[in-house]
Amino acid sequence: MALVKLSELLAQPDDTYAIGAFNVSDMEMAWGAIQAAEELRAPMILQIAEGRLRYSPLDLLGPVMVAAAKKCKMPVAVHLDHGNTMETIKLALDCGFTSVMFDGSRYPLEENICRTKEVVKLAKSYGADVEAEIGSIGGAEGDMAEADIAVTDVAEAKRLAEEAGVDALAVAIGTAHGNYKKKPHLRIDRLKEIHAALMTPLVLHGGTGLTEEDFKNCLRNGIQKINIATASYDASAREVKQAVAEKGNELKYFDVSDAIVRGTCANVERHMKIFGMEGKARL
User: Residues near 55 by Cβ (< 8 Å), separated by ≥ 6?
Assistant: First the structure.
C-alpha cells in the first residue's frame, strides 16, 4: 500500500472510529506498529515528536519510518509530532513525511496563526499536510518543558483553523502528555462546542491513561485522530523487563529487539480496537 497523506486518513465518513497516531523511537517500534496495522487491517499514522529527537535523530529514523510505511500493506501516513522549529519541520518534509505538526500553542494567538501560516506554505510546497495546536495540553512531550493545561477557546480555535488553513487541529480538553498523576477531567462540553464550530478534523493528545469510555466519548464528539506515545514506550519496557527476568544471563541482543516489537505491537493493537480501527483500511 502506498504511503498516504494525513488528510486522506481523516476523510472518514462517520464518527464510529478515530485514526490512531502512534509515536515510535526506533526501527523495532515502527515494525511493531506496522505488524499491528496489518494484523487488524487498519490504517495508521506513524509519528515521532521533536522532543524525542535527542534519542532518535530525525535524519536517521525518519527514512526508516517512511520505508516502513511504504512496506506496510495498509495505508500509513508518516507525521512529525509537536514540531517546534522550521529546521526540524523542513527536515521531516525532506525525509518524505506526509504531514507535520507545528505546535504554536505557547505563542499568543496572532503569532500562532502567523507562524502556522508559514508552516502551511512550506508543507504545501512538498504536497504535505499540517496539524496545528490551540490551547495547552498538559504534561511534557519528550524533552520539552512541563506545561499546564489551558482548555481551548472555541473562537480562537475557529480563527486559527480558518486563517491558517490547517488540515487538523489539536485541542486541549483536559488531557496531558505522559502518565497521569491524577484522574483527568475531560471537557467534553468544550469539545462539542469546538466540533460544532469547525469543519477541521480535531486531534486528541495525551491519550495514555484514558479509559476506553473516555476515548469513545471523545471520538463520538468530534475527535478524528488520537495520539498514543507513552503507553507504547511503557508496554515495550515491560516486555524487555520480562525478557530479562526469563532469560537472565542468557539474554541476547535480539531478545531485547523482539521484546520491543512485541510490546509495541500489542499496545497498538489494543488501542486500535478501542478506537474502532479494526478492518477500516480502505485499500
Answer: 25
